[in-house]
Write a structure and sequence with these properties.
five-stranded antiparallel β-sheet, mainly beta, single chain, three-stranded antiparallel β-sheet, 123 residues
Length: 123
């Protein structure tokens, strides 16, 4: 499967499991509801999410564990339109990495700060 760029019908997916090198996903075209399939895909830099910290004063926190009470592992002080690469998942949390201002930032991104929809800004 690949994006239908001409028809603006992009692939979207949800991740429900992971292994060392693969993510188990439900994937399909965003505008074609009956096109979804499930299976394992190899992890890559092209699989990711966007962050929802849109306000200029809203710092994004990446945590050391999939829990907002855990230690903050990295911070992103302002919004960026870059894709956060998904490295692993736990329930609805994703462990992400991003190159931000020349430095690699990593950590667990909470579900309500993820924006995976290519058609909206999730705000």
């Amino acid at each position: 499967m690949k994006n239908n760029i001409k028809g603006e019908n992009y692939l979207v997916m949800s991740i429900d499991n992971d292994s060392l090198d693969f993510l188990h996903v439900i994937i399909g075209f965003a505008l074609t509801e009956d096109s979804y399939i499930s299976g394992w895909v190899k992890k890559s830099k092209a699989i990711g999410t966007y962050a929802r910290n849109y306000r200029s004063d809203e710092t994004l926190y990446l945590y050391s564990k999939a829990d907002t009470k855990s230690k903050i592992f990295s911070t992103i002080p302002d919004w960026t339109n870059q894709l956060y690469t998904i490295e692993k998942c736990y329930k609805e949390w994703v462990f992400v990495s991003i190159k931000y201002k020349g430095k690699i930032k990593k950590g667990w991104l909470q579900p309500d700060k993820q924006c995976e929809n290519p058609y909206t800004t999730c705000n």
